[in-house]
Amino acid sequence: MHPVVSYYINQIQSLTHLEEWEVELIIANTSTRSISKNTILKQEGSEVKELYFIYKGCLRTYYLDKKGNECTSTIAFENAYCWAINFLKDFPLHEYIEALADSEFLVFTKEKFYYLVNACPGFRTVYLISLEKVAIKYAARVETLITLDAKERYNNLLQTRPEIVLNLSNKVVASFLGITEQSLSRLKAQL
């Protein structure tokens, strides 16, 4: 079994029991991929037919505003899923998906992912747990963007997701916070 698949199976089994036939089904319906830093996996306008579970590295989703500025919507490190919301619906992607580090991950095609959700009780359980975590994370992110000023958002990010500030460029951190790089530099200088 590929190390990425083995890791993923272990992560699922830390949350719920999998029967042997479920493990075999997951192995048969996934693939792995390795990409280099700065590789664009998906571009605006493309169809979203894959979901990724990160084993090593970091992926982000971002879109471009009307002025061409990058606006990072999600950042996913090891042991997390990365996907564009368009995965759930069949309409063209408005985001980009990019590797922020050399990355290795498990790939689920949309068809095989939903097959696993319907066929494997253990996989379905983990899917529901993951959906809850994503909903909570997105709600918290929207709340911070709406209710906190830039300094408060930066301090919140340092407390809740320090790996973003410690491992990623100021450009990416600033776009995740919804501020300019210059504003981020001023915030850092004040601390």
How is this structure best summarized?
This protein is an alpha+beta fold and 191 residues long.
Distance between the termini: 47 Å
How does the overall form come out from the CA principal axes?
A: globular
- How many helical elements? 8
Helix/strand class: alpha+beta
Radius of gyration: 18 Å
User: Helicity range of the residues?
Assistant: 40-55%
Assembly state here? Answer: single chain
The total of beta strands comes to: 8
Mean pLDDT: 92
Low-confidence stretches: none
**H/E element order:** HHEEEEEEEEHHHHHH
| Percent of sequence in beta strands | 15-25%
Q: In what order do the strands lie side by side in the largest sheet?
A: 1-8-3-6
Largest pleated sheet: 4 strands, antiparallel
Molecular structure report:
Helices cover 48% and strands 22% of the residues. It has eight helices and eight strands. It starts with a helix and ends with a helix. The strands form two sheets. A four-stranded antiparallel beta sheet has the order 1-8-3-6. Helix 3 crosses helix 4 and helix 7 packs across helix 8. The chain is of the alpha+beta class and 191 residues long.
